[in-house]
Design goal:
Two copies of one chain form a homodimer. The first copy, chain A, is of the alpha/beta class. Chain A is built from 26 helices and 20 strands. Chains A, B: It holds the Pfam family Transketolase_N.
C-alpha cells in the first residue's frame, strides 16, 4: 500500500494505544497465518517499543543504513514480529506481503531477525544473550567512532529489548560487566520483565534481582510499568542523560490482550488461535480485519519513520564537509579496500620474513605483522580476553580503550571470550571498524555461539587463537585444542587459517583482513617454527587454501599434506623419505575452506594421484575429504597431556619418522594394489 | 617419605605460617623445577587453603572417595600446585616424586588438575568458570542425596576456590544464579580477590562489585583479609551456618612472599626464578632446601589428613545399617549395573515400539522411554534449560527440585545451557546420580566447554538435544544445527547418537545409560518419523554404531548411509531405485564413534564394496571417512532457512529423488571406472 504522508497526519493525533495495537495485531495475524511464531513478546512489549520508536529512536526508514542512526537490537529475537511490524509500519523496505509471508521460504521475514536479509535489522538474534552482548559492541563502536570523528558525525544511542532468557544467559553478564566498566552511557536496555519463560513462571528457575545485579556492574537501573507509555517515556528520557549504561526493567504482561493466555507461558511461543485472536481484538478494541491497519494509524507510523529525515540531512551536510578518509569510513554499504599504506607495509614485512627466514612462533610472526600494519588500517581494533602477552595481539601503536577515553585501538576484554566475540560482532556491525581479538584456541568453545553468528551474518571479524595444539605443552589437555580445528572448519562461511610459518602468517592476516564478508580464525602456534617460504614477492599462496611446498622432480610416490606447525615436520619426513628414494610431495593446507573453492584442476594438481598422508596435531575430523576413506593420518586420537611440547610430539607419534612410516605403508599398499 | 604420626605431633603445635609456607614452597619449587606453572595463586591462597584444610574440610586422605567427604574444588585450576601440595602434605596418594614431576609426561601432577588422573582431585579444572559451576552441581547433588538418604549418610559441604577469571566468565553467573535460586547453603566459595589477572590489574577490564552481584542472586557475602588465618576461620565458620550459598571474598596478595613479583601480574603464570625464589624464602623465613618440609610440619599436615578418620568410621557404621539399595549407591569406585527393573521396562517399551511401529518424533519417543524407565533407575535426574515442553525431558514420575525440597528428580535449569552442562558434570562427579538435561542441538554450542570436560573426565552425563536439523522448520538458521553433529563428533570420548525411529531412540538411551565412562548426546528430531524397526526382541543394534537396515538379495549396487530423520528418506530412495533395478543397501548410522570401534570385518560387511552415498541434513563434516574422498553426500552446504520443514527438505534437496540421483551418479561412475 502506498501511503503519502500529508501535513495533517499528526502523530500526536493518533492515540498511543492505536499505534501499539497496530504493532500487536500485525504480529498476531502474521503468526496466526504462519501457524508458527511467538506472540507473547510483541504483544507485551508493543507499548514500550512504540514509545521508543515514536518518541526517541533516531532513524530514517528510507535510509536504514544511515551511519549515525540509533541502533535498535531485539535481543529477544523470537519476538521478531515486533521488529517486522515496526519496520513495515514505519515505511521500511518490508511490505505487507512480506509480513504475510512470515516464516515462509524466501520471505524477508524469517523466524528470527537476520542481519543482511531484512533491511533495518541491525543484527541476527535468536540465540539468547547474543543481542545484548552484540549491542555492547555497537555502543562501544559508537564511542570509539565519536572519539575519532566527533559529535558532528557520530552521536547516537543503542537500544536493546531483552527478555529473561537473555539476562539468564551467562553471556549477558560478560556484556553487562564490560559495558559497565567502559561506561557506555549511550546503551539503554529495555528489559521485558514479564516474569514468564518457556517452562512457566521465571520463579521456577531464577530468583535474581536483576536491578541489583546490573547496578553491581555500574549500570543506572530503574523499574517502570511497561504498559504506561508516559512512564516509559520518562524513564527513557532520564536514562538518556545518565553517564552510565542503563537498564529499564519494564514490568509487562506477556501476550498482553489475549484474555486466556496473557501472563502465562502459553502466550510465549504458539499462535493464539482463532478464538483468542478474536478475544484479544475485542479486549483491546481493535475492530479490524486481519492485517488491516487503519489509514490514520498507518500514516502516523509512516511519519514516525520520517522523523529522522531532518537530522539525517543535517548530518549529510556535515558529512560533505568531512575529510575524505572520514567520508570513506561512513559510506553506506561500502566495500572498503585495504589502503595503499597497508599494501606497502605488508609487502615490506613479506620481504623481510622471506629473506631473513626467522624461526618464530606464528603468534610471534602475527605480533610482527600487527606491529607493521596496525597503524595503516583505519578502524583496526585489537583486543584479547586477558591473554594479551600470550596471544601477542597488542600492536606497539595501539593504546587501550578506557571509560571516557575511547580514542585507543586496543580493548582489554577481560576473561570474557564469549562477550568479546559478541562485542566484536557489534563493532563490525556498527561499521567503521575491523575488530580482531585473541584467546587460546581451546577456548574458542566459549565464544563459539558468537563466532557462528558472525559466520551467519558474514561479518569481517578476526579471531586470533593461539596455542593451537599440543604444542602448547605443559598446560595439558584442558588447554590443548585437539578437536577445535575440525569443529571450527564445519561452520559455514568461516575461514579457519592455520599458517605454517611467518610468511604464511602474514598471508593469512592478509586473507582475513581482505575477507569483507566472512569471519576468520587465525590458529597460531605457541612454539617456534622455521620459515620455509622464501618467496619475497608474488601471490598470496594461503589464499588458495593449499599449495605445493615441495614437488619432487619427475613425479611423486606420495603426497604429505600438513597444516601449521606440522608442515615443517612433514618437510623433515620428506627429506627422510628422499634418502630411501621415495619421492614425497609436501602440501601446506592452511585453509581447507579456500582450497575447497579452488577450480578442480588446481586441486587435482596440488593433491596429485599418489597416495596421501594427512598430518595435523589434532583429531582426524574432516581430513578424509583430502586423504580418502582409508588414507593415512598422523595426528591425535585422544585428548592431549601435560608435558613439554617436544615430549608430547614424540609420545603422540607426530614425528618425521612416523610420517615417513605412514608414507611407506601408503606406498606399499598402492604398489600391492597394482600388483594384485 | 614415610611419616608415622605420633600422638605428640599436635597440629596446634605447628604455627599456621609453617603449614602455609610448606604449601607455598612445594608449589614454588615444583614450578621452578618444571620451569612452567603458576605460582601466584598457591602463594596467595596458601593461607586460606591451610585454614580450610586444617580446620574445616571433612576428608580422610587415605580414602579420597569416601562418599560423605566434603568436596574441594580448585576452580582456578592453573593454581594446581596448591592442590597437589595439599594432597601430598595431607598424605594422599601423591608422593614427593610426583610433585617433583610436575607437568611432566606420565606424572600424576599435570598442569591443571585432572579428575580420574590424580586421587583426590574432585573435578578437572583450568577452563575458567567450570569449577565453580561444577561445584554447584556437586552441592545440589549433596542436597538431593540428603533428601533421599538422610543426614546419616549424606551431610557435607562443597568448597570452591575461585579467582577473578572464574568470576568474569559468564558461566559463573549462571552457576551463581542457579545456586542462589536453589538455596544451596552448603556451598562456600572462597574468592581469591587479588585484583590481578594475566594482563595486569583487574581494573583494566572490570569494575564489578562481586559481593553485590552475588547478593543479588541470593548469596550470603562477606569480605575478609585472606592472609589473616583467624579472620578466614571465623568467616568460614559463620558462613557454614547460613542457609544461603556463601561467597567469602578473600583479599590476598598474588604471589605472596616474592618481594619483586607479589601483587603484580608477573607473579601469575611464570616460575619465580632462582633469585625471587631465594628472596621469597628469606622474606617468609622458610630456610629449607627445595622440596624439604620439616618433619614437624609434615607430621602436622599428615595429622590434618587423618582428622576425618573418626567421622568416616562413624559413617561406615551407619552405612552398614543402610538398605542394600543405599549401600549400592554409596559403593566407592562402583560400576553400577542398570537394575533389572530397568531392563524389563526397556524390553517392554521395545516390544511396543516394534509392534505398534508408531510415527513419532524421536523426541516424543524419548519422552515415552523416559516415562517408561525413569522410576526404575535410582539417581536418574532429568532437566532442561527452559525447554521442557520442547525437549520432552520430564518424565511423568519426575517432580521438580526446589529450594528446600530436594527429593524431586527434575531440575528447571533455566536458560543456562552452559551452567546446566557443568552442573550435570557436578551431579555425576558427586556420585549417586545419572544426570540428563535438554536443550536444542543448536545450543550445544553454549554448553560445549562443559561437554568437553565431561568427555575429558569420562563422566556419564546425557545431553538430550532436540530439534536436531532443518527439520525444526520455521525458527530458521539461528536455531537449525547444520554443523553441530560434526562438531560434537570430533570431541574424543563423546558418544553422539542420532536415532532414526522409536526403537533406535530406545536403544540410544540404553547405550547412553549403560556408558559409565563416556558422556552421550542424543540428537532428536522435532518432526515425526516412521518406525521402521520391527524387531521386538534381540540385540541393541544402535550399540554397533551402524547397521544394515536393508540388504538387497543378491548383492548391492550402491549403499545409502543415513542417520536420524534421513534414514526413512533413504529407505524411500531405495524403493525408488528398486523400480529401476538398482539394488540399494540402506545403512542406519546412529553413532559414528561406536561404529569406528567395531571389528574391521563387521564394518566391511555393513559398508560393503559398492559405491556409497551419505545422507544427513547437516554439513558433510567427517562423512568422507565413510563415503570416501569423492563419495556422494546429500546434505547441507550452508546454513538453513526459515520455512516449514517439508519445504526446507525440498529446497535444500534432501529428498528421496536427490538421493536416488546421487546413487545413480555413483553407480554410473563405478561402471565407467570398470569399463575404462
Amino acid at each position: 500500500m502506498n501511503i503519502s504522508v500529508h501535513a495533517e497526519a499528526d502523530i500526536t493525533a493518533v492515540a498511543h494505544n492505536d499505534l501499539a495495537n497496530a504493532v500487536r495485531f500485525l504480529a498476531v495475524d502474521a503468526i496466526e497465518t504462519a501457524q508458527s511464531g511467538h506472540p507473547g513478546l510483541p504483544m507485551g512489549m508493543a507499548d514500550v517499543a512504540t514509545v521508543l520508536f515514536s518518541r526517541f529512536l533516531k532513524f530514517d526508514s528510507a535510509h536504514p543504513n544511515w551511519p549515525d542512526r540509533d541502533r535498535f537490537v531485539l535481543s529477544a529475537g523470537h519476538g521478531s514480529m515486533l521488529l517486522y511490524a515496526l519496520l513495515h509500519l514505519t515505511g521500511g523496505d518490508l511490505s505487507l506481503d512480506d509480513i504475510k509471508a512470515f516464516r515462509q521460504w524466501g520471505s524477508k521475514t524469517p523466524g528470527h531477525p537476520e542481519y543482511g536479509h531484512t533491511p533495518g535489522v541491525e543484527t541476527t538474534t535468536g540465540p539468547l544473550g547474543q543481542g545484548i552482548a552484540t549491542a555492547v559492541g555497537m555502543a562501544l563502536a559508537e564511542r570509539m567512532a565519536n572519539a575519532r570523528h566527533g559529535d558532528g558525525l557520530v552521536d547516537h544511542f543503542t537500544y536493546v529489548i531483552a527478555g529473561d532468557g537473555c539476562l539468564m544467559e551467562g553471556l549477558s553478564q560478560e556484556a553487562i560487566s564490560l559495558a559497565g566498566h567502559l561506561g557506555l552511557g549511550r546503551l539503554i536496555v529495555l528489559f521485558d520483565d514479564n516474569g514468564i519463560s518457556i517452562d512457566g513462571p521465571t520463579s521456577l528457575a531464577t530468583s535474581d534481582d536483576h536491578l541489583a545485579r546490573f547496578a553491581a556492574s555500574g549500570w543506572s537501573v530503574r523499574r517502570v510499568d511497561g504498559h504506561d507509555p508516559e512512564a516509559v517515556a520518562q524513564a527513557i528520557a532520564e536514562e538518556r542523560e545518565t553517564a552510565k549504561p542503563s537498564l529499564i526493567a519494564c514490568r509487562t504482561i506477556i501476550g498482553y490482550g489475549a484474555p486466556d493466555r496473557q501472563g502465562t507461558e502459553k502466550a510465549h511461543g504458539a499462535p493464539l488461535g482463532t478464538e483468542q485472536t478474536a478475544a484479544a481484538r475485542r479486549a483491546l478494541g481493535w475492530d479490524y480485519q486481519p492485517f488491516v491497519v487503519p489509514i490514520p494509524v498507518l500514516k502516523a507510523w509512516r511519519m514516525i519513520g520520517q522523523r529522522g529525515q531532518v537530522e539525517r540531512l543535517a548530518w549529510l551536510d556535515r558529512y560533505e564537509r568531512a575529510t575524505p578518509e572520514q567520508r570513506d569510513l561512513f559510506v553506506e554499504g561500502r566495500a572498503v579496500a585495504l589502503p595503499a599504506a597497508y599494501v606497502l607495509a605488508a609487502a615490506k614485512l613479506r620481504e623481510r620474513f622471506a629473506s631473513e627466514r626467522p624461526k618464530l612462533a606464528t603468534r610471534q610472526a602475527s605480533q610482527q605483522v600487527l606491529d607493521g600494519i596496525a597503524s595503516t588500517i583505519p578502524g583496526l581494533v585489537g583486543g584479547s580476553a586477558d591473554l594479551t602477552h600470550s596471544n601477542l595481539t597488542q600492536a606497539k601503536a595501539q593504546t587501550p580503550v578506557k571509560a571516557g577515553a575511547f580514542a585507543g585501538g586496543y580493548i582489554h576484554y577481560g576473561i570474557r571470550e564469549h562477550g568479546m566475540a559478541a562485542a566484536m560482532n557489534g563493532l563490525a556491525l556498527h561499521g567503521g571498524f575491523i575488530p580482531y581479538g585473541g584467546t587460546f584456541l581451546a577456548f574458542s568453545d566459549y565464544s563459539r555461539p558468537a563466532i557462528r553468528l558472525a559466520a551467519l551474518m558474514r561479518l569481517r571479524v578476526i579471531h586470533v587463537m593461539t596455542h593451537d595444539s599440543i604444542g602448547l605443552g605443559e598446560d595439558g589437555p584442558t588447554h590443548q585444542p585437539v578437536e577445535h580445528l575440525a569443529a571450527l572448519r564445519v561452520i559455514p562461511n568461516l575461514l579457519v587459517f592455520r599458517p605454517a610459518d611467518a610468511v604464511e602468517t602474514l598471508e593469512a592476516w592478509d586473507c582475513a583482513l581482505g575477507s569483507e564478508h566472512r569471519p576468520s580464525v587465525l590458529c597460531l602456534s605457541r612454539q617456534a617454527l622455521p620459515t620455509f617460504r622464501s618467496d619475497a614477492r608474488g601471490k598470496n599462496r594461503v589464499a588458495r587454501g593449499a599449495y605445493l611446498v615441495v614437488s619432487p622432480d619427475g613425479g611423486r610416490d606420495v603426497t604429505l599434506i600438513a597444516t601449521g606447525s606440522e608442515v615443517s615436520i612433514a618437510l623433515e619426513a620428506a627429506r627422510l623419505l628422499a634418502t630411501e628414494h621415495i619421492r614425497a610431495a609436501v602440501v601446506s593446507a592452511p585453509c581447507f575452506a579456500l582450497f575447497e573453492e579452488q577450480p578442480d584442476d588446481y586441486r587435482a594438481t596440488v593433491l596429485g594421484t599418489a597416495p596421501r598422508v594427512g598430518v595435523e596435531a589434532a583429531v582426524v575430523g574432516d581430513w578424509h575429504r583430502w586423504i580418502g576413506a582409508d588414507g593415512e593420518f598422523v595426528g591425535m586420537r585422544s585428548f592431549g597431556a601435560s608435558a613439554p611440547a617436544p615430549v608430547l610430539y614424540r609420545e603422540f607419534g607426530i614425528t618425521p619418522q612416523s610420517i615417513a612410516e605412514a608414507a611407506r605403508r601408503s606406498v606399499a599398499r598402492r604398489n600391492q594394489g597394482r600388483t594384485a
